[in-house]
């Protein structure tokens, strides 16, 4: 009977892919042309796989609820455990602004006024309306339960499959588009152009596709024979994600003319492919509405998820009683309202930064940097716990001795360091006048987010701990 509840190998592959199946990141991949193959392999091999494998060992060895903050707390102390949980919460301020920005773009196409997709003030207004809307709905209703899995099917899986099919049909019909990002192929196009360092910033945006890869490790204990099946599931999932994303990315790169890619506008390739293949324009309105549903469901899931984790951290005494308030439905009201306010402030970026494309990329990169700090702490903790808790039962273990763990951890730290360095290079799509401002913004945003957590921890009081 016990085994009847176990996940199969294929079940875990499906769940892992579900975490990362999204059409939103395809334009960021496509704008790099042929170089996306190199970037995607770097993101998968140096970033996603090491973190997923370390997280698998940690989650099977330390099974209490809490994930990364529990691992880091046990390895290097409560302070850094708190910083980890804090960063996993605050990164969503930037991540959700990026996700919500696509609502405005999609809505413009749903109502047949596509020029709104490049209007900064319209995007800003829609971010505020959509995020506050799903926040207030979540205070009244369990929107994730209401939306269920159909939101992902309608808004993510069907649009992704349709995009791949249309892209391949376009390529079979037209071959390589001479005006697209794949034209005039040279072997050197497969590697980054080091004479244009600003183009390296796209690597950070592509790495963001795999951000959150540690989440699938929570299922490591539920799979049959985790020692054998978990690494197979993770490696298979990453390979399949690389293949599907590259097919989508290369076909979109082929269809969208050079210099015309709109990073926050996933509707653009559907429009190009449909017009070329003779598909009625109403199809674009329908697919935009479907993706819009998926984005709103994703926003709903993020409204409460991180807040529920943070209130446990608060009740452990890491934050004042003000943060520990719940409403009559048990929802952590302070966190939910605070994150809505901060997300509203971060969305001002869409008014400050010259165009929607640039703002979208800048905010994606900020989110990636914050994730990278968490992954550095996980990598350090994974090695530390090998020596601190040598006798811990680890159903999934990286290698017999400690050598493999050291190798994977150092590989992960190297990839995190490279990602952060690359993220601080001003992207080539930004105006030169904004380059210095970009670097200052990324440094200040990161220092403030980490610094606030350290200051709160330094001044925490025993009276903050919630009595049972």
Automatic annotation (TrEMBL):
Superkingdom of origin: Bacteria
Gene3D superfamilies registered for this protein in UniProt: Amino acid/polyamine transporter I
Entry keyword annotation includes Protease: no
Location relative to the cell: Cell membrane
Sample GO molecular function, one term: transmembrane transporter activity
InterPro entries registered for this protein in UniProt: AA/rel_permease1, APC_superfamily
Principal place of residence: membrane
Membrane-topology annotation of the record: Multi-pass membrane protein
Family matches, as Pfam families: AA_permease_2
Protein keywords: Cell membrane, Membrane, Transmembrane, Transmembrane helix, Transport
Keyword set includes Magnesium: no
GO cellular component: plasma membrane
Segments crossing the lipid bilayer: 35-53, 86-109, 121-139, 151-172, 200-220, 232-257, 277-304, 333-353, 359-383, 404-426, 438-457
Name of the protein in its database record: Amino acid permease
Species whose genome carries this gene: Paenibacillus lutimineralis
């Amino acid at each position: 009977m016990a085994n009847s509840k176990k996940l199969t190998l294929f079940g875990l592959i499906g769940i892992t892919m579900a975490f990362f199946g999204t059409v939103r990141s395809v334009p960021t991949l496509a704008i790099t042309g042929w170089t996306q193959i190199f970037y995607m392999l770097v993101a998968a091999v140096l970033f996603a796989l090491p973190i997923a494998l370390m997280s698998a060992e940690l989650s099977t060895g330390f099974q209490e609820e809490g994930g990364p903050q529990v691992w880091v707390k046990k390895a290097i102390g409560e302070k850094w455990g708190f910083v980890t949980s804090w960063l996993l919460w605050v990164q969503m301020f930037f991540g959700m602004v990026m996700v919500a920005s696509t609502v405005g773009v999609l809505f413009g196409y749903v109502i047949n006024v596509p020029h709104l997709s490049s209007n900064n003030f319209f995007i800003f207004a829609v971010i505020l309306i959509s995020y506050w809307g799903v926040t207030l709905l979540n205070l009244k209703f369990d929107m994730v339960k209401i939306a269920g899995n159909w939101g992902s099917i309608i808004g993510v899986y069907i649009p992704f499959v349709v995009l791949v099919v249309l892209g391949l049909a376009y390529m079979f019909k037209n071959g390589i588009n001479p005006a697209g990002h794949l034209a005039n192929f040279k072997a050197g196009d497969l590697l980054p152009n080091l004479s244009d360092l600003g183009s390296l910033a796209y690597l950070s945006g592509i790495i963001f596709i795999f951000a959150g890869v540690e989440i699938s490790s929570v299922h490591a204990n539920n799979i049959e024979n985790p020692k054998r099946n978990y690494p197979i599931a993770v490696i298979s999932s990453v390979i399949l994600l690389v293949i599907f994303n590259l097919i989508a990315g290369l076909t979109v790169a082929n269809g969208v003319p050079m210099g015309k890619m709109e990073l926050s506008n996933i509707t653009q390739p559907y429009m190009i492919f449909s017009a070329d293949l003779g598909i009625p324009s109403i199809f674009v309105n329908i697919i935009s509405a479907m993706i819009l549903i998926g984005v709103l469901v994703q926003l709903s899931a993020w409204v409460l998820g991180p807040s529920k984790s943070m209130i446990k951290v608060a009740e452990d005494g890491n934050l004042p009683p003000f943060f520990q308030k719940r409403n009559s439905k048990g929802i952590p009201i302070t966190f939910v309202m605070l994150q809505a306010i901060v997300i509203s402030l971060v969305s001002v970026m869409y008014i400050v930064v010259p165009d929607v494309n640039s703002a979208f990329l800048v905010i994606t990169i900020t989110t990636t940097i914050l994730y990278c700090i968490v992954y550095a702490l996980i990598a350090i903790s994974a090695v530390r716990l090998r020596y601190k808790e040598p006798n811990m039962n680890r159903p999934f273990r990286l290698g017999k001795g400690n050598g493999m763990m050291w190798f994977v951890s150092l590989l992960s730290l190297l990839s995190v360091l490279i990602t952060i360095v690359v993220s601080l290079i001003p992207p080539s799509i930004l105006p030169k006048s904004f380059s210095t401002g970009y670097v200052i913004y990324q440094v200040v945003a990161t220092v403030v987010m980490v610094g606030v957590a350290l200051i709160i921890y330094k001044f925490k009081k025993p009276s903050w701990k919630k009595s049972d």
